[in-house]
What we know:
elongated; alpha+beta; eight-stranded mixed β-sheet; 26% strand
Amino acid sequence: MTDSTSIAARRFSDLHPGFELVHAEEAAVPVSLLALELLAQERRPLPVVDEFVLRLTNRGVNQVAAIAGVLGLDDETVQTAVAQQLSAETVDYRPDQRGGRTVVLTPAGKHAVTDLATTTPRRVEQPQSFDRLLWELTSHSSSELISLADARQQNMIILPSRRTYDVTTDDITARALNRLLESQSRGQEPAVEVLTVEGIIRQPRRYLPAVLLVFSATGFDDVRLSIVIDDSTSEMHDTILTGLGGADHLQIRVEPSIGEPDLPLELQALRAPHSTVRDLQRRADTTTADTAADEHVGSRAPDDSVTARAELDGLTVRSVPVFEHRELLADALRSATRRFLLATPSISASVVTDEMVDRLETMLRRPGLLAHIAYGLGHSESHVDPAAIARLETLDRRFDNLTLVRLTDHHPGILVFDDTWVNSNFNWLSYRGTATRSYRKEEGTLVRSREIVDEKYAQHVSGS
């Protein structure tokens, strides 16, 4: 699980009341990377009235009343503009021979008029991203986008386009583009104003990495999807995806849970429940930024986060929410120094990737470490991807400290690393589902106790 996926799963696991998070998966939002041909001009630094005060003064219309008459404005509005330009030192307001006052350009004012005269529209080419699911412009740059080949290589779920045809100039207005430029200017006025969108020169398809959260209703058959982009949920994307068929369109299905393998009664009595664990995880994940809006909570957030993390680490027997399984497997590969044991019914090439194999190899190179991987667990061979098994068999031949076996008898799932045991039937090496993307909500139990883990490890190793 990538950092962004892990963060999204933790942060938004309780997003929909009455629904439980079943799965978090890397996804790809379709984007057209447009090369737009625009008619644009540099934005003029002056308000319109101020600009015409300078232009008319330069042409000899230099009385406030005369300027107001030409512009069809009241004298007060023009006087305000003259006052602004006095402050900017582009004009003087001098007494004249008839007892009135005349507006006179200063050297700076004459330079400003020259600049205004040279500001003319021009045709420019500008790259711009277009979100094909929302069917609107987006601010994401080309450096944030990836190709379809990269998305498939990373086993991302490819989200659908709202429409199948190419983007046209009818889909993009100058107003929408100017509004987007203003939102990207961080409070500064954009240097360029788009007058018209004249054409689209190129529009290759690209994809924006995102996270797709799969929720299953508690007590009835319903699946809800949420899309996380830039660490935030997007209700607009969710709504449109639902309108396009949602889970059915993506062939996502939630299957019944197999249930956790039997846990000894003495451990069941010590087990911290799901509600306690989730409360501690939420507090541990809370940062000052998350709580800055609440002055009473924000000042205590760092201390409370540390305290909650310590309490969570101190639980010797506790629930493991479904989203945490992938984190624990990643932690096992990263931190195991003495032993690693994994028993899983199925194996998929979408999980046993180059990255996964590299992590396994790094772990197997640690001196003194013994590793066991068992698969099958009484299930048919259809649960096993030959390409994934071939990769693991290559590691088995290369490393004497790895034992890879297929178990034909039914056997519970398990993960052991050093003094940690995770009791769960989670699909450790096929959690990305089948071709039809079938997922299960499997909760497990984490046990931290050298004596208990020693016994469990010996039991499983001798049995394999």
